[in-house]
Amino acid sequence: MRTAVVLSGGIDSSAIAWWKKPDVAIFINYGQTPADAEESCARNVADRIGAEFSKISIDCKSIGSGSLASRDALSIAPAKEWWPFRNQLLITMAAARAVELGVKKLYFGSVSTDKFHADGRPLFFQQISSLLQSQEGELIVDTPAIELRTEELVKISEIPKDLLLITHSCHISNFPCGVCEGCIKHLAVLRILGIEY
Ligand SMILES: [Zn+2]
């Protein structure tokens, strides 16, 4: 079965890419502020696993919210970094590319700590997978790490340390700022894993 991963170049999707070795790595520039750094990391990961790199550029910044859109989050946002329906948008865009490429399974890198937003929960992924399977292409969405914390995923995936160290998690910049939610999580995970940086 031909598979693809939605690869942001962050720790979670990079670890899933290493773990599952998909045929295709789909990177999406949807207008997020750190898109250039994310793309560079995603290209590196795709190269290392020998996946075909497929890029989508669709500027959704005008409907973004929160730190990845360089704006204050909407009042209904569950966190500073929250973009309305982002996972739905990303999966829809990736699915359109995936069916073009003959992909049957799409890996998405959500982890257990993403459940603070509704589109990071198992129910959302079951629903969007059912929705896609009911349409042409019969694409399955698989979230193999949905019950794992990032540090557990990293261990299971056996992603090499050097690749882990080049992943990009900063929400506000193409260079790690060290203080945003993305950087704080990145540093905390490396610390838990005992990785020096
Ligand atoms: Zn940052």
TrEMBL record:
Domain of life (superkingdom): Bacteria
Class of the enzyme per the UniProt entry, highest EC level: ligase
Keyword Phosphoprotein in annotation: no
Signal peptide span: none
This protein's pathway: Purine metabolism; 7-cyano-7-deazaguanine biosynthesis
Keywords: ATP-binding, Ligase, Metal-binding, Nucleotide-binding, Queuosine biosynthesis, Zinc
Pfam family for this entry, one: QueC
Keyword Nucleotide-binding (UniProt): yes
GO biological process, one term: tRNA queuosine(34) biosynthetic process
The reaction(s) this protein catalyses: 7-carboxy-7-carbaguanine + NH4(+) + 2 ATP = 7-cyano-7-carbaguanine + 2 AMP + 2 diphosphate + 2 H(+)
E.C. code: 6.3.4.20
GO molecular function, one term: ATP binding
Family assignment from sequence similarity: Belongs to the QueC family.
PANTHER family assigned to the protein according to its UniProt record, in alphabetical order: 7-CYANO-7-DEAZAGUANINE SYNTHASE
Protein's recorded name: 7-cyano-7-deazaguanine synthase
Natural source organism: Pseudobdellovibrio exovorus JSS
